[in-house]
Amino acid sequence: MKKQFVLKSFIADNLVAVIFLAITIASIPLSGLSPVHIIDDLMTRIGRNAFLVFSLILPIMAGMGINFGMVLGAMAGQIGLIFAMDWGIGGMQGLGFAALLGLPVSILLGWIAGSILNHARGREMVTSYILGFFFNGIYQFVVLYLFGSVIPLHNRAIALSRGFGVRNTLNLEPVRQVLDNAWLVKIAGVRLPMLSYAIIVVLCVFIVWFKKTKLGQDMRAVGQNQHVSNAAGIPVEKTRILSIVISTVLACFGQIIFLQNMGNMNTYNAHDQTGFFAAAAILVGGASLTKASIPNVFAGVLLLHLMYIVVPMAGQNLFGSANIGEYFRQFIGYGVIALSLVIHAWRSRREAEKARALLRSEGEEA
Amino acid sequence: MNTTDMQKRIKEAAADFGWPRIIIALFLAVLFILAPFVKVSIASSLSDIINRFGMNALLVLAMVPMIQSGCGLNFGLSLGVIAGLLGSTMAVQFGLTGWAGLFGAIALSTPFAVVLGWLYAKLLNRVKGEEMTIAMYVGFAAVMFMSIMWLILPYSSKNMVWGYEGKGLRTTITLDGYWNRQLSDFLAVRLSDNFVFPTGLILFVAASCAVMWLFLRSKTGTAMTSVGSNPDFARASGIDINKMRTTSVVMSTVFGAVGILLYQQSFGFIQLYTAPLYMAFPAVAAILIGGASINKASIVQVVVGTILFQGILTMTPSVINSLLQTDMSEVIRIVLSNGMILYALTRKSKVTR
Amino acid sequence: MSNDTPLLRLEGITKDFSGTVVLENVTFDLRAGEILGLVGENGAGKTTLMSILFGMPVIRETGGYGGKILVDGREVRFSGPFDALDAGIGMVHQEFSLIPGFSATENIMLNREIAKGGIIADIFGPRLSTLDRATMHTRAKTAISRLGIEIDPEMKIAEMPIGHKQFTEIAREIDREKVRILVLDEPTAVLTESEAEILLDAVKRLAATGIGVIFISHRLHEITGMCDRVVTLRDGKSVRDVPVGETTVEEIAVSMVGRDMAPPEKNQDNRVFGEPILSVKNLWVDMPGEVVRNVSFDVRQGEIFGIGGLAGQGKLGIPNGIMSLYPAGGEVLFKGKTLPRGNPRTALAEGIAFVSEDRRGVGLLLDETLEWNIAFTAMQSQNRFLKSFLGGLVRLRDEKAMKELANTYIDMLEIKCTGSKQAAKELSGGNQQKICLAKAFCLEPELLFVSEPTRGIDVGAKAIVLDVLRKYNRELGVTIVMVSSELEELRSVCDRIAIVSQGAVADVLDPSASQAEFALSMAGLRESGKNRIKEN
Amino acid sequence: MKGEQKHGGTKTLALRAAIGVAYIALLALFLVTGRTHTVLIDNKADPAGAWQAIRGMTVSVNGGEAVEYMKGDRDKVSVKGQKMRVRVEFFDGRDTEEYSLKIPFIEDTLLLSVPKLAEGLDNPMEPFNLYADNKARTDAEEGERFGQEP
After folding, report:
1. Is CB count within 10 Å lower at the N or C end of chain C?
2. Alpha carbon A353 to its chain's center
3. Domain locations in chain C as residue ranges
4. Domain residues of chain A, as ranges?
5. DSSP letters along C342-399, please?
6. A89/D131 touch (CB, cutoff 8 Å), yes or no
7. Cα–Cα–Cα angle for C483, C484, C488, nearest 5°?
8. D92 touches chain B (CB under 8 A)
């Protein structure tokens, strides 16, 4: 039967995206920003941020909901960057060095996070959120106390004056905008960082290829029904851990790309917002806790960034105070996540009831 | 009673008391032993701990109803805190001072707390499973929404509003001249030069604990506990599960509102905007340190947990800093509180199925 | 398999779960290409036997099994389900083990996907080899065609009719290269008549290709229609093993139930009963696994009314529906007035109590003390055991009264425990059941529903529980409706017994009726006068 | 990333080893080629009079843009890699000189005195300890609040 396009069910399905779009479009004229400026800003932000949001796809596919623990990957990336800056490695080599150093750290952190989440079945998301905080404490301990004392720190420029611990803000001058300027195309005033886009395309190819592999298939199976997968002999625990490991590694690379574009790194807070932002983006893009696809990521990043550019300015012009816009932006971000979680939970309950009713009606006429 | 029986008894008590709590208690004891060696006065530390206990006890107590009724850890406590902030800002706006100020604030915030709690409960009842994550983000969204409201709502009292614009509230509003330390200084006893016992505050906390203890023994309280440990059992005995969950959420939000008022009066300021964002986590950590699980919590655990948690928070900066000449207290606080929550989340739920 | 060694031989299989013997000297053969029907009441040991055959870990964990399993004449000992699969034994359970979001092909090839190797697979291990979907598609098509039915291999399971789901699962089992023995556990339970027929033809076609099939079902007409031989299991013993040609449906039914003991002595005090206290008309209840379609019966005041029948036929749904623990419809009159439905509280208030069949899940608060467990329902629905202060504004638990209540019942029902403060989880099965009974008794109900009161408790405790029920009815004149799968107990306690089959009352029999009558109505075949269940 | 492999064949082990070696090699390559040093191009006279500043010149490093230096000027250049080609064009008519120098891997910042280079004195380029003299500036920056409510 052809799926005829019912407007009402389309709206009901991606209620979140529709509300979001309405608010954003309404505030574009209010913001008083020229379209070129908006598009230009949007393009750089997509180049900078999309990679991070992709790291959420695999855990959703493996049935672990939104992996707020991707913050661990961001921390691994930052540790890689600290070492790169310690040796003052510039250009692409700097990014490569940071990524390669961040890789083993993020694999280890991903493995630890995965096994902990396996112990908290049914409440993975809140556990991954708390995991993010917990490792934030450990990250601060390592970076503020071990660097320079236990871990040799060569370059005095990034150390605190007391000799150990890394500075609050780290200047990433040697690697600043390296990816963006490597292959920059300018069309009608809009800068397009083609190399960043190329990397994102490579990531999409990886995800499409991964879904076709046996491990990808196992992950989809585990995501839908752990019991049946287990009975079929799929190593459920290991598969879930691998999905978290890959997500953490992607978050590590994503954070490096993000910070390279920003040009400097707020050593102790840069990773805080990554989990929140990526979750809001993928949910706005129409993903749910059990189904997420590449279009969801692109739509989400586009919409959320459009909002992040336009709404604060709109708030400024409308209410005359910038921080209303700022708070409004945060409110929308958190509101979107809360709303999508509620809709998802409500819909899965309704489906369960519908299935039972179906069973009953079938039982009725049999 | 032969020795094996004794060992079994001790092991059982230890397991029941929970290994992490023993480790934390020992850690606190070590800090107290070290204090004199690093010239940290025990008296002022004790006075600090008692004060902080009084400030936070009610926020931790607010966790009990929802845990008992099976709604899990109340990461949406910020809703209660918002109700409290609304009540206290209105009390200051009406210029209520002294006792009238404090109790006026409580009276003003309770209706907000009940309404917010009721809406929050409606949402949670519709969404069984992943309640904690949803509670957290609903709380965050509400705090952000209120941050906008603080700028728009028509407050006019001069010492609350931004000076130059005359509209929108300041981030912190002083309570001097209103009901600052109203409870803490009431019948305060000066035990030694730097140890003042805030009798009023502790009495209020004791009274609230008594109210909660009585409620848990009441008919509805018993019903609520049964919903937490076995919802099917409760339903079979004719209990309206959703009604019980709603009562527990409303109670938790009201206790959260009164809790923040207690916190403010001893802290001396009303903190607005993003201050309540992370209010829930220390309270959750405290009750878990007290030995509560995801669906079982008692008043004793609230008291023990708050004392241990606040004890660590007060002692680490002073003792550890002078010991290692570095401020490790921030790291210890984060690792300790979140470690406890992780420990509780990853333990099999204690209720036997 | 030309020579006479059977494809599969079970020899003297015995199994006990911590003392209670569940299987005793079960012996039968299965030849290649033969369809063997396995019948028996629930609790006769069928599921345990199949778990032993399939090497399920639970068997090893509870002390392994006695006797031998021989495949092609050689003894085999399976350490896990995958050894059984390698030995060529496939099993299809009643509840589907399928991934809803996957297509038929993906389900059939679950964890046996065909994948192309590659440089990456060599480095990072085989799990990164890409799937060869084309070959998987053809493999699935052949497996499905062997069943002789048309299913689109790319259709998602969630969108499939129930019948197709069953075929997909069977296709998965027969797709395994070495499958030679296929066990079907009540495959037609959820199918419509037409779907069942297609399934049975498909199974026959499979057997013809040389696969040995063990077919477990409660629908005796299916057994006679399709199997070559029938083995009956009763109380863990293989009591009968006979080719289908030499037996009839009635004989099979009797063999399932018949413990040909003398009918219970006619209870002398010919009891006189009052007006019907409860009358149920066209009740339907939507309880998972126990669908009640159209049940009507009356219970007279002071009577002990039994409800029997095989598992899954809906008998347990009746009390749960009346107490509105599950969505239900139809008319229920209690003492002449229609009983409003929607919340268990209304039934409790009217004076109806219910002892649930799920003792640990619904019946008890395992972590709380005995006092709590016993007094709880009375406290909540009748406001007893409460001390009220400030004119009823605050009502606190009256711990002392609860302690007294608990102790009276502990003595009355001789509950073995260390005192009323002990947690319910520490008691034995029998004593836990007594606590549930005490909880219902202290409500002083006029009508008491009791579901499976003797399930999972030792024989000694069974007799005591039944005695308590009988005494409670005789001394206080409380009407009891007892639902149980233990036919003997129903016959020894109840005044009348209704047999429920396929969600409707097949017949209401006197306890002294013959075994065959019971067996046939249980199998839903008996031409009883009143409400003949139409062959749906 | 290592899925369990049924066959622990030598082929896989060999490939795994190769991957490991490649990982280390790549790291080393990035380290060496990417290493960036800050070089201070200096045109000051020696206070002890050993050499005089050059009246005027343009200096281009590694083919980069030629920057004008007058007497007493000093400017910062960041140089990637351990080798450095310096082209100096003198205003006072001397012919252009081309020098190539090696930068020690360890040093972050170095001071190149062009006058010493031009006059062929030994070790014209020495490590420059940025932090010895102006400790004050680093303290100020570190004063910011760090660490935060989680």
Report:
1. C
2. 33
3. 8-88+178-257, 263-351+445-536, 363-442
4. 7-365
5. S-HHHHHHHTEEEE-S-IIIII--TTSBHHHHHHHHHHHHH--SEEEETTTTEEEE-H
6. no
7. 130
8. no
User: Do C430 and C465 touch, CB atoms closer than 8 A?
Assistant: yes
Out of A89, A157, A161, the one facing D34 most closely (by C-beta) is: A89
- The answer to whether the CB atoms of A89 and D1 lie below 8 A apart is no
Q: C8-88+178-257 adopts what CATH topology?
A: Rossmann fold (3.40.50)
Binding-site residues on chain D for chain C (CB distance < 8 A) = 1-6, 11-12, 15-16, 19
Topology of domain A7-365 in CATH is ABC transporter involved in vitamin B12 uptake, BtuC (1.10.3470)
Collect all residues of chain B within an 8 Å Cβ-Cβ radius of residue D147. 330-331
Mean pLDDT score of chain A, rounded to an integer?
Answer: 85
pTM of the model: 0.83
Q: According to the CATH classification, is domain C263-351+445-536 in 3.40.50.300?
A: yes
Instruction: Determine the residue of chain B that is closest to D149 in CA distance.
Output: B278
Both tokens of D78, joined, read: 């960041």
Question: What's the pLDDT tens digit per position in C421-455?
Answer: 888 888 888 888 888 988 988 888 989 999 988 87
Q: Do A214 and C127 touch (CB under 8 A)?
A: yes
Task: Please tell me the distance in Å from B11's CA to the nearest CA on chain C.
Answer: 18
**Strand, helix or coil at A14?**
coil
Q: How far is CA C138 from the centre of its chain?
A: 38
> What CATH number has the domain spanning D36-131?
2.60.40
Shortest distance, CA A328 to any CA of chain B (angstroms): 7
Q: Does A209 touch chain B (CB under 8 A)?
A: no
pLDDT computed for residue C2 by the predictor? 45
Measure the CA–CA gap between B91 and B52, rounded to whole angstroms: 24
Give the closest-approach CA distance of C125 to chain D in angstroms: 5
Q: Which residues pair with residue D85 across a beta bridge?
A: D100
| Signed CA dihedral, A262, B331, B345, A332: sign only | negative
Distance CA B268, CA B172 (A): 10
Query: In this structure, are residues B84 and B113 in contact, taking their beta carbons and an 8 Å threshold?
Result: yes
Structure tokens at A363: 């039982």
- Whether residue D34 and residue A93 make contact (CB cut-off 8 A), yes or no, is yes
Please, what is the average pLDDT of chain C?
82
Q: Is B113 on the interface with A (CB under 8 A)?
A: no
ipTM of the complex: 0.80
pLDDT tens sequence across C342-351: 888 888 888 8
Return the biggest CA–CA distance within chain A: 81
pLDDT at A253 over 90: yes
Q: Measured between alpha carbons, how far is A113 from A118 in angstroms, rounded to an integer?
A: 9
What contacts C261, CB < 8 A, 6 or more positions away? C488
Determine whether the interchain pair B219/C363 forms a contact, defined as Cβ–Cβ distance below 8 Å: no
d(CA C273, CA C497): 15
Q: Which residues contact C142 (CB under 8 A, 6 or more apart)?
A: none
Dump pLDDT digits (tens) for B258-290: 999 999 988 888 888 888 888 888 899 899 888
